[in-house]
Design goal:
By secondary structure, the protein is mostly helical. It has 7 helices and 2 strands. It has a two-stranded antiparallel ribbon. Helix 2 packs antiparallel against helix 7. It is elongated, with a radius of gyration of 16 Å. The model has no long low-confidence stretch (mean pLDDT 83).
Length: 180
């Protein structure tokens, strides 16, 4: 339900803002090890992907999609569990061109990251009524999770933001920043 998802968005958004605010801007580009993103890259990935998920949700709510598509994984992970598995994931290499950029994020500055999270926060509220009214039979394809309806895309945005809080805390610990 949209009110429950909005409650989760609020909590996740506040956690990100609380974590971002006190950080020294010099840490944003700090190297934390081979094959690991910087704090700024994590923020770019999280906000870019979450914005894309919200865009997909809104497109389905306003323009529709395809019907007759079933996805047991999406139903279980998104609608029942409401969370991504706790493991670490690599962005698949065989993504469609538009999605490929999400696996090689740019490094956002602190102010850019806070602005990007604020934009997502505003968008989640702005499209909520349309998502609540969307036909759940209308779906579009996520490159890894399969066919999702507007509500599932909407919930995935928050789930993705929450999932990356684990990575965020690991990176902060590697940099010697107090982890909350």
């Amino acid at each position: 339900d949209v009110p429950g998802i909005l409650g989760s968005f609020e909590s996740t958004y506040k956690t990100w803002m609380r974590d971002l605010s006190p950080l020294d801007a010099a840490l944003w580009h700090a190297d934390v090890g081979e094959d690991t993103w910087t704090l700024g890259q994590v923020c770019d990935h999280v906000t870019s992907v979450s914005a894309k998920f919200l865009e997909s949700a809104q497109a389905l709510a306003t323009d529709g999609g395809q019907t007759g598509r079933r996805n047991p994984f999406a139903w279980l992970a998104i609608d029942v569990i409401g969370s991504l598995p706790p493991g670490r994931f690599k962005v698949p290499k065989n993504l469609p061109p538009y999605y490929a950029r999400f696996g090689a994020p740019e490094t956002l500055g602190k102010d850019q990251a806070m602005g990007a999270f604020a934009t997502i926060h505003g968008t989640t509220h702005a499209i909520a009524d349309g998502i609540a009214a969307a036909d759940r039979a209308q779906k579009s394809k996520h490159p890894a999770a399969g066919w999702l309806d507007a509500m599932q895309w909407y919930r995935m945005s928050e789930m993705h933001m929450r999932h990356h809080l684990r990575q965020w805390k690991r990176l902060k610990a590697r940099l010697g920043v107090q982890v909350s």
